[in-house]
Structures
1.
Amino acid sequence: MGYVRQSGMWFHQYYLGCLSHASYLIGDERTGRAVVVDPQRDVSQYVADAAEHGLRIERVIETHFHADFLSGHLELQAATGAPICYGDVAHDDAEFPIVGLAHGERLSLGDVVLEIRHTPGHTPESISIVVHDGADSDTPFGVLTGDTMFIGDVGRPDLLTSVGTTAEALAGQLHDSIHEQLLTLPDETRVFPAHGAGSACGKSLSSETSSTIGEQRRTNYALQPMSRDEFVHVVTEGQSLSPLYFAFAANANKLPHEVLTEQEAPPPMTLTEVLAEQRRGAVVLDTRDPNAFAQGHLVGSYNVGLAGRYAEYAGDVLTPERPVVLVGDVGTELEAKNRLARIGFDHVIGHLADPVSAFPEHPGWVAVAPRLTVTELAERIEAVPDLQVVDVRGPGETADGVIDGARLVPLPRFLDRLAELDPSLPTAVYCGSGYRSMIAASVMRASGFVDVSDLLGGYSAWVQSGRSAAA
């Protein structure tokens, strides 16, 4: 949805498809007072919209410490002077000044009132925000549920297991939060979550970005009648592998960091300068379409296409401290830099100024990437006994079948498990459609694998061709 103007309230949902992330600007038109909830890191749109509609952003409210993106709370504070607010149990974790919001606290913007409800479960500090359009309204306009409740799902409770909090304990808290704090709201109350389909913060998120409490009560699998123990079991099983960068981003959201300059593109570099940085350890990240990358790219470069879930998958194969030099279509370097910054990967040191000229002028530094059709891969499996076939899909995808004999190395664990593969063997990589397989294949070639190809169209093409698959 876009914006809603209702009885003097200005409410806008911003949906960032590449990270499946929803953020919100809520204001009272009579008083001009406003808040932003769960902002993305590049914050100019909130500032511009507030100015256009005569609103002053007085608070930045975070529903929790996010793991899937680096939030824009510090950027928005720098732009507006607004204090940063979390649920009051977050005080011990944040290493920058915050204002704690207590359970039951009501924040008046004028006729618009925000009610804070502590809803732990996805994380211990999670809050939800009930939006009242008129302080005396019996039915709230809506509730911002953060990662506690999604459309069609609830927040996963297992992301903090690495720091000693069990998924089962958090799932129990999640059950109580949902039943005692959210499902007690009237059925007409609109539900506005922080994420939609594609997010790894849950396992069954809808492509819809809003709903109602009543609709979720009827259709959300996790809200159906069941015991607390049954709920814990249902929401802890079958979760996808979390992207590699999640632990980094969750911690980075608790720390001070340099404010993003979102209009500042990375500086242009000559090919000589790019190659020198590559020799010093920088990653050359090619953001073009996989087919364009296959036709010619700088030797040793990684490919993560900008048209896909670029930042998420880049976060699976890059590390935040390693310098990055971008190669891409002309004019895309600012977007490519900012999208990496949205997950906290800030070490972009430049971009190749003119790849269209640089590649043909320096053919010795250009390589091609072989891509196989389904028929070609099938023939290669028959003809090459020691062919190493690698499936980089996640467990939820491979449960429906794999190519017989494939090694399962999901992309979020690829860097950790690369040493399990033999770089001397001929290798064929596949994913669901051919996007992630090129990412993995490019990393393997850059890591010294001598013969790597990937499957055009991925496993979907393999199945559609009528080829057999292992269960």
Note: The radius of gyration is 24 Å.
2.
Amino acid sequence: MFNALFGLFSKDIAIDLGTANTLLYVKGRGIVSNEPSVVAVAPGRGGTQQVLAVGHEAKEMLGKTPGEIRAVRPLKDGVIADFAVTEAMLRYFIQKAHNRRTFVKPRMVICIPFGVTEVEKRAVRESAENAGASEVYLIEEPLAAAIGANLPITEPSGNMIVDIGGGTTEVAVISLAGIVVSRSVKVGGDKWDDAIVNHVRRRHNLLIGERTAERIKMTIGNAWSMGEPAQMHVKGRDLMAGIPKEITIDSDEIREALSDPVEMVVEAVLSTLEQTPPELAADIVDKGIVLAGGGANLVGLDLLLSDRTGLPVVVCDDPLEAVAMGSGKMLEEIDLLRDVALV
């Protein structure tokens, strides 16, 4: 009787703890939350930080807060940069998944970038345990992304996945439920936003914020010419006159702005292919490369990678949700989870 009740109140959850977005998967319900990894904090009593908002509400505050309130991203390049704020964010998502019941102790799967240090693994594990998890399993993001993209990772054949997140890009060749070759580079959607901010400042003497840069990227950002350039009106602060100003930019110049950070992704893919064993490389020639993560939505990125590698490249269904879906599927196959989880 007790075990049945415990199972009812402690639903297992999987978290794609990303630099840009955090997705939450609850066993039996699927993905229940997709919110920005942003927390608004203010000074509290005794030198502590008081959490004012998390997720969408906190992101709306980015660049708009008065002096004492800070809207912060507690993860940088896929790993924890602010331990206390990450813990508060995890606690918020756990309570949200369980309708704000605070006594729930769920089993938790958390995805982390490939090749993180032992210190970084321990930071994630301790944050989750302090936030209320009963058990914590750490899964490497490329594996979770491959499972979410429905690749046959347990078979003895090569599967290549490129997971482009907010802070990191993970490139991996997977066979027999293990990563054979992998490359992780600290470039992703955030670096692309920075490149747009810098380009607009240099070319137009206009200062824009990161939310505006993200909107530009999602509206007219591209990695491959798709015909007639698209245009967009952008507002910011004129650096010469110091007053608000509106300009018009087009997709061609944004492609130029993104060329350097996008090239870093291409180089990571080429480098991984060079290190791939020949038998697995032969499989990739047939199967091609699969793109996942929010960065996979950049228009024309698949065409650019196909042109540079000579291989077929496809974007998986719902690339932003691939890692969360893959880690969620692990909850259904607990034996596989224990095999691939990091110790």
Note: Residues 251-275 form the longest helix (25 residues).
